[in-house]
Write a structure and sequence with these properties.
The chain has 258 residues and is an alpha/beta fold. The protein is 44% helix and 16% strand. β5, α6 and β6 form a beta-alpha-beta unit. It is globular. 46% of the residues are buried.
């Protein structure tokens, strides 16, 4: 077993395993195993595991959360467990029971296909504050899923959250277009605004081996990236260990740029 590299001063890699569970759920054979996938990624150097258990159980299920929590506590206690979800649906039940290192609050509707927008302030401020406070009282770091809007970061901090996760689909979609530089500059500005008010910055959604290095070169001091769809697509071809290693290479390539 290799030690997690979360102690290094570089962006941490958290592997989102939702798509492994999605494939498994198409049959009743229990394969592919979410727990085995997590073990292979962690053994290859991933810093943590992310899951987003939606209320309809269409991919990650409650038992997966329990099994992964047990795995991490037993075999990788230095690694991070990040549970994503809407705190007004089922997320807080998982936070209370398993007390992961991080909970990422995402404003999804119950039937939403995938996460596609962040919290909005001042609309969401008052109702988020008590749930952020509860999670933090349990020893759980709170990250808010946010659009790259610098003007929203001060009020995100006012919720009591520790971090924001910048929603990066817009960055990924702009690659190769005339808007790419302008869009990327919004992420840089949003990250700096967050850091100025005391928030740390995560990022995720549609990040891949093709765009990760450039993003981390442009956006300052990203603490963690959570990558799922592209990671699992790559793992189908390369395997979990090789895919983990290549994403870590992308992160390290960004860090080597002066």
């Amino acid at each position: 077993m290799s030690a997690s590299s979360s102690s290094r001063n570089r962006t941490a890699l958290s592997v989102n395993l939702n798509k492994v569970a999605l494939v498994r759920n198409t049959r009743h054979l229990g394969i592919p195993s979410v727990v085995y996938a997590a073990a292979l990624c962690l053994d290859a150097g991933a810093d943590g595991i992310t899951v987003h258990p939606r209320p309809d159980g269409r991919h990650i299920r409650a038992q997966d959360v329990a099994d992964l929590s047990a795995l991490l506590r037993r075999d990788w206690p230095q690694s991070e467990f990040n549970i994503e979800g809407n705190p007004f649906q089922n997320l807080m039940d998982f936070v209370r029971e398993f007390r992961p290192q991080q909970a990422t609050f995402v404003p999804d509707s119950e039937d939403q296909f995938t996460s596609d927008h962040g919290w909005r302030f001042p609309e969401d401020l008052a109702r988020l504050k008590p749930l952020v406070a509860e999670a933090r009282a349990l020893g759980v770091r709170v990250s808010l899923f946010m659009d790259p809007d610098a003007d929203q970061m001060a009020e995100a901090r006012a919720t009591g959250a520790d971090r924001v996760e910048l929603y990066t689909e817009g960055y990924a979609a702009s690659r190769g277009t005339s808007r790419a530089a302008q869009v990327l500059a919004r992420y840089t500005e949003a990250a700096r605004a967050a850091q100025e008010v005391g928030l740390q910055v995560n990022a995720g959604h549609d990040l891949s081996r093709d765009n990760l290095t450039d993003f981390l070169r442009a956006v300052p001091d990203v603490k963690e990236v959570s990558i799922g769809h592209a990671f699992i697509a790559d793992a189908l071809e390369l395997g979990y260990a090789a895919t983990t290693s290549d994403y870590l290479r992308c992160i390290d390539d960004a860090a080597r740029v002066a």
